[in-house]
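Key result, reporting period 2: structure in, sequence out.
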């Protein structure tokens, strides 16, 4: 049996072994995190109607179209399987502090960190967790319906940035083909959910374009303080939504946006690169993520400045190597 088939078998077995299942993903979730979580929950419930399956974590209003999350008293569950999706470390799990789980099933496309699943499918070559869940459902007896297929497609499109990013592979396209072919979903209207935006957001994007500082090493940096957010009438989360809009700007190979999140009293950095690998640099500052898409949080702005300096140095090194 192939390695992947063996893994699917183990995944199905551990799901079958538990009647209570809690599915968790990372804090500050994106559509891949929430869509994979809701799709897997719905598929398990469809396949095994007697199981209690909960998708937990803080809801995000703008992703409501993906479906709703579950409110459940986790301290009452005594024999639960914890399924971890789209996150490699315990520190970024959203909303399972109260749960005493019996085992972990992990499915993720971030480089491995401290969470090791009893059954573990970690593949950082995959473009999204939704791609992995789509493979799992289509290649096993787990069931799919229209809504599940729509969610999986949405997550795949989002995390690969419309199949523009590095981890998009022929496998990704095969998965998309199989998913669309078998589910017959109408996928064009789904783009409204992902890409419709207000003119206020566009005006804020113009602010970022006008104020980003670009070094001679093609490193872009901008810090957005609470006053700017107020002036434009936007939430701090909008900054991370904008970071993908800066791909393919000729003068940038790496860029970092920092915003001060007043509610939590913390600075949040979002970093993208189409040059140097950045997750190892971010991890030196307690951040992390993918090779070319990372983030970091810190209470101290000075840490952000140091991180920016490190990234600028990495760009310099990258350009020197390219020119040799
Ligand atoms: Mn993801």
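The corresponding designed sequence is given below.
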């Amino acid at each position: 049996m192939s390695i992947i088939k063996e893994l699917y078998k183990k995944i199905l077995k551990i799901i079958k072994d538990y009647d209570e299942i809690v599915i968790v993903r990372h804090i500050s979730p994106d559509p891949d995190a929430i869509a994979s979580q809701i799709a897997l929950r719905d598929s398990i419930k469809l396949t095994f109607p007697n199981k209690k399956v909960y998708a937990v974590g803080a809801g995000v209003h703008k992703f409501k179209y993906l479906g709703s999350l579950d409110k459940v008293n986790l301290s009452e569950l005594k024999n639960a399987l914890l399924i971890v999706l789209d996150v490699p470390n315990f520190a970024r799990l959203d909303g399972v502090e109260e749960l005493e789980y019996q085992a972990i099933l992990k499915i993720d496309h971030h480089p491995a960190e401290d969470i090791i699943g009893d059954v573990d499918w970690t593949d950082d070559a995959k473009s999204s967790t939704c791609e992995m869940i789509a493979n799992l459902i289509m290649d096993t007896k787990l069931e799919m319906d229209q809504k599940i297929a729509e969610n999986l497609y949405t997550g795949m499109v989002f995390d690969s940035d419309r199949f523009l990013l590095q981890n998009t592979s022929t496998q990704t396209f095969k998965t998309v083909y199989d998913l669309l072919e078998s589910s017959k979903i109408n996928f064009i209207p789904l783009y409204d959910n992902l890409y419709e935006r207000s003119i206020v957001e566009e005006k804020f994007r113009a602010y970022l374009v006008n104020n980003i500082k670009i070094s001679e090493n093609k490193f872009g940096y901008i810090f957005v303080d609470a006053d700017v957010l107020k002036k434009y009438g936007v939430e701090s989360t909008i900054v991370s939504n904008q970071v993908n809009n800066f791909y393919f700007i000729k003068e940038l190979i790496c860029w970092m946006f920092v915003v001060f999140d007043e509610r939590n009293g913390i600075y949040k950095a979002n970093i993208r690169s189409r040059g140097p690998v950045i997750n190892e640099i971010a991890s030196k500052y307690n951040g992390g993520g993918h090779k070319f898409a990372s983030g970091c949080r810190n209470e101290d702005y000075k840490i952000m400045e140091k991180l920016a300096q490190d990234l600028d140095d990495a760009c310099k090194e990258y350009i020197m190597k390219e020119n040799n």
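The chain has eleven helices and eleven strands. The chain has a mean pLDDT of 96. This case is discussed further under Risks and Mitigation.
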